[in-house]
Write a structure and sequence with these properties.
Two copies of one chain form a homodimer. The first copy, chain A, is mainly alpha-helical and about 140 residues long. Chain A folds into two domains: about 55 residues, Multidrug-efflux Transporter Regulator, Chain: A, Domain 2 (Orthogonal Bundle); about 55 residues. Helices cover about 60% and strands about 5% of the residues of chain A. Chain A has a two-stranded antiparallel ribbon. Chains A and B meet through helix 3, helix 4, helix 5 and helix 6 of A and helix 3, helix 4, helix 5 and helix 6 of B. The structure holds a DNA duplex (30 and 30 nucleotides).
DNA sequence: GTAATATCTATAGTCACTAGAGGTTGGGAA
DNA sequence: TTCCCAACCTCTAGTGACTATAGATATTAC
């Protein structure tokens, strides 16, 4: 049996966040000690690591709840789980592409700054005038 | 003189967001009509485009406020503005690097899915077991 | 003049947590 | 065994950057 603090240390998920996940239904309410403190089965470690890992990958709590639902019914086809992963992959790739465009523009902007006076500062000028951009965002 | 709706249409910033920016001090409170509706000078178009452009680049409202402060005093050296742009470039580049690692892992995860039963689903397995990862995140 | 649309303020909701107040419990040292 | 303090409890409010709603008033087109 683990206290919430031990669970927190061993998973890297903050105590308050663990309670939040319980409240949101991502993990089941655990047993309590005589003094009403949470006491977790070691299994919860695994569940919480699952959740943390998925969150680190940027998967939304909603999608994680779906995956948990799926994983409790081990006889269902896993194409739905795969679909969630693929969906997320697409989002990630879009994000990367977008950020790379921004990167390009920021490099352009800050490489042209002469560092003299704001009146002639390329950073502020180019942020004021969208037309200076090479591409849309 | 522009109404808030016209300003919104011409900049792509939502009406409610324009009022929010005013409340946050990003744009100055405009004159009002006899009936108390906001009436903007055409100049505000430029300011709001500046803000939108910077927000699209992911620059925080706080940083934008700093840039606006800078740009009102056109005799200051613009190195501070450049610093904000560079700082932001670094954040973007970190984000890109991180997302690319996630991308790699998601590709690995979802390419191994056999599509049979959840019990043997690689997506759920590998999300449960961080040890299957090739790299940390 | 009337009807439709736009605008006003003020308040509450969103997401995914995080922080704090004020009180109780658990476990090791004296 | 008693004490102490860190860890825990619940409940509420705060974060950031908006978004949405309600109910009232203004503007505009016909």
């Amino acid at each position: 049996m683990l206290s919430i603090g031990q669970l927190s240390k061993q998973t890297g998920v903050k105590v308050t966040t663990i309670r939040y996940y319980e409240q949101q239904g991502l993990i089941a309410p655990p047993h309590r000690s005589d003094g009403n403190q949470r006491r977790y089965e070691p299994d919860t470690l695994k569940q919480l690591r699952f959740i943390k890992h998925a969150r680190d990958l940027g998967i939304s709590p909603d999608a994680i709840a779906q995956l948990i639902d799926l994983s409790t019914d081990t006889d269902k086809p896993c194409s739905a789980a795969d679909e969630i992963a693929r969906q997320h992959l697409k989002t990630i790739q879009d994000k990367i592409a977008c950020l790379q465009r921004l990167e390009k523009e920021l490099i352009r902007i800050s490489s042209k700054c002469t560092g003299k006076r704001v009146g002639e500062c390329y950073v502020i000028q180019s942020l004021s005038d969208h037309g200076l951009c090479f591409e849309e965002h």
